[in-house]
Recover the amino acids of this structure.
């Protein structure tokens, strides 16, 4: 496939929603793992199917990952398509779900703010009445100031009610509301496992695009974890839109059944 005729992967026009249209896409092994148990995920995509990620970064207004992916892969999340394939050099707003503002100042995202904006979404401050929490809050404020000085934007949203202190989950509906308020009409959720699971669990995926490699990993990092599904009627259901070979990988596009 030449760079000129890379196909669109999101509908045009987008369906009318009062939140961004959400596309989940990831590369996985045939047995559903997005990385080995040591965290190696480079490259489950074929050279051809790697373009899926690049097209989505070009065509969606924003791309979102969790802090786990930032720490594991240090991605830049920029569109690297050639000028012929991305003539207006469109770059997405890069969004990180990072409840406790742990994005390292030396991360590639922090070094590329001139190439496109980066938004860190953290948790609203929790009420505290002990000295240890107060010290943590001060450390967090110091980390935020460093990120702001590097040119990143920072906002806070509430956490989900079922969050545990060791793993704070940001409320995704509020995240989407805040993105929509700033004009984001389409959002590419790129990973990792915890974030993909949260979007599916909350029924917030409009389209899923799987980039499937013909290899088996066995025990690794599964793309999707517990969705709370106990019986088949509770499973999240999608309808197939297309299935194509992109090099040795199969790219499977599916839409949520409404
Ligand atoms: N093959 C692919 O296409 C692909 C793509 C991306 C990533 N990956 C792989 O995925 C792995 C990382 O996945 P991961 O599950 O460890 O991390 P992740 O999903 O990238 O990030 C999870 C973290 O995001 C924060 N978070 C905030 N709100 C959340 C919410 N509502 N739901 C879920 N998480 C929320 C939490 O941070 P706190 O714990 O601080 O609260 C959580 O621990 C890496 O190995 C990476 O290589 C593969």
């Amino acid at each position: 496939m030449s760079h000129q005729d890379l196909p669109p992967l999101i509908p045009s026009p987008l369906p009318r929603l009062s939140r961004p249209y959400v596309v989940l896409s990831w590369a996985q092994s045939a047995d559903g793992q997005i990385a080995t148990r040591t965290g190696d995920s480079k490259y489950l995509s074929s050279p051809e199917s790697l373009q899926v990620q690049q097209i989505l970064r070009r065509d969606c207004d924003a791309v979102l990952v969790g802090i786990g992916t930032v720490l594991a892969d240090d991605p830049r999340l920029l569109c690297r398509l050639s000028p012929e394939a991305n003539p207006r050099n469109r770059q997405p707003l890069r969004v990180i779900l990072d409840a406790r503002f742990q994005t390292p100042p030396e991360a590639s995202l922090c070094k590329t703010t001139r190439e496109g904006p980066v938004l860190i979404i953290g948790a609203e401050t929790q009420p505290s009445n002990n000295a240890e929490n107060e010290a943590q809050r001060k450390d967090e404020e110091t980390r935020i100031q460093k990120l702001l000085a590097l040119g990143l934007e920072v906002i806070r949203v509430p956490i989900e009610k079922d969050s545990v202190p060791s793993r704070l989950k940001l409320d995704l509906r509020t995240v989407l509301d805040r993105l929509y308020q700033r004009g984001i009409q389409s959002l590419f959720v790129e990973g990792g496992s915890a974030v993909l699971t949260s979007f599916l669990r909350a029924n917030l995926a409009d389209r899923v695009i799987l980039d499937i490699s013909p290899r088996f990993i066995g025990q690794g990092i599964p793309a999707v974890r517990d969705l709370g599904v106990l019986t088949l009627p509770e499973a999240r259901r999608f309808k197939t839109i297309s299935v194509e070979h992109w090099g040795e990988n199969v790219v499977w596009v599916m839409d949520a059944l409404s």
